[in-house]
Specification:
The chain has a single domain, classed as Zn-dependent exopeptidases (Aminopeptidase), CATH 3.40.630. Helix 8 crosses helix 10. The protein is an alpha/beta fold. It contains 10 helices and 10 strands.
């Protein structure tokens, strides 16, 4: 018997690549290198429940300045949707940070790309594939804004100075591998390496997007993780993504089944091995071919929230889009329902895992 999920829509904020062209393969290399070499920056190595401490040097959000009305695309639109079970029975949280499909008209008009091309970075319909979670007793959080607009799987201030018409504040991280690849908190390119913007931006626009979208999403996610940890003694966060089929093309070998999914646990540092094991073994039994940490080892969410010693375990799951959509038309294929059913079975398997020892000591 499943719970009846309850839905809540989050606020915008307030009440209820001569640069080389960079494709998906390059992005995966950046992600993998980041997981291997990432070192905490000031204000980022904090307990997940203290999401406010993610501010640079502990400064409050007011350093961003006031919301600029001219760029306030989400003043009357929710930034996220949260589907809650009537009663949380599983120590699991599911989050889909890149499946948002609300492209503000002003953003589309400012882009040199057509709406279809802007969707190249979108993890299409991932929240639908994991939609069974609330009915099985676990919350599901999804961003409603698109990744091309603001990427919540990045540090809060990974910004490319070349995108802006004036110098950026000192607290901005200008030199991360993600920024160099054009895939910072405000991306310069979409997934196939095409430049997004016609003209340079002003920092007030970036600040407004962060205040309306980035911080509300992370405040909600941090609250879910902490509430789950307190209730069960630990929390397992599954960060849900999809990947272009050509991003794993280099891993194909003659006679070997194409790669279906990639599990990212930051090379064993973001979750206990039991979590990765039960997911990989379950998917293998269902007939899927999986790899760990290659080519995607985990992004900011996996690295930042994953604290096994504190009872918080994070695993990133990347689904090959060819499993469930036509990548040219973004239409769901006949296999969509089958994959969703298998993921529901996976959620149940995770819920049955004896995770007693995963509680913080």
């Amino acid at each position: 018997m499943t719970d009846k999920p309850r839905s809540a829509q989050g606020p915008g904020y307030g009440p209820r690549r001569r640069r080389p062209r960079l494709g998906p393969r390059r992005e995966s290399e950046v992600d993998q290198a980041s997981a291997r070499s990432w070192q905490p920056r000031a204000g980022l190595e904090t307990p997940p429940r203290q999401v406010e401490s993610m501010q640079p040097d502990g400064e409050p959000e007011r350093r961003l300045g006031p919301i600029h009305p001219a760029y306030d695309d989400f003043s009357s639109e929710p930034a996220y949707r949260l589907d809650l079970p009537d009663s949380q029975r599983l120590p699991l949280v599911f989050a889909s940070p890149h499946s948002g499909r609300h492209y503000p008209a002003r953003f589309v008009a400012a882009s040199r790309l057509d709406p279809r091309t802007l969707r190249r970075s979108e993890d299409c319909y991932v929240e639908e594939l994991f939609a069974a979670a609330p009915g099985l007793g676990a919350p599901l959080l999804q961003a409603l804004f698109p990744r091309a607009y603001v990427d919540v799987n990045r540090e809060p201030y990974e910004l490319d100075p070349k995108m802006f018409n004036a110098p950026l504040p000192d607290f901005v991280n200008r030199h991360s591998p993600r920024v160099a690849a054009g895939l910072g908190t405000l991306a310069r390119v979409v997934g196939n390496g095409q430049e997004i913007y016609r003209d340079q931006l002003i920092f007030a626009e970036a600040a407004t997007r962060l205040r309306r979208c980035y911080w509300p999403y992370h405040h909600c996610l941090a609250d879910l993780v902490e509430q789950t940890r307190r209730r069960f003694g630990f929390c397992v966060l599954i960060d849900c993504h999809s990947m272009p089929s050509n991003s794993v093309g280099g891993l194909l070998r003659p006679g070997v089944k194409p790669l279906d999914m990639v599990l990212g646990d930051c090379f064993g540092t973001s979750c206990a091995p039991e979590v990765s094991d039960v997911v990989q073994q379950g998917l293998t039994r269902m007939g899927y071919r999986t790899l760990r940490n290659k080519p995607y080892a985990g992004g900011f969410v996996t690295r930042h929230y994953g604290r096994p010693s504190a009872g918080v375990h994070v695993l990133q799951i990347e689904l090959n889009r060819k499993l469930y959509i036509d990548e040219a038309s973004y239409q769901r294929t006949a296999s969509f329902g089958r994959l969703a059913d298998h993921l529901a079975q996976l959620i149940q398997s995770l819920g049955q895992l004896d995770l007693g020892r995963l509680a913080a000591e």
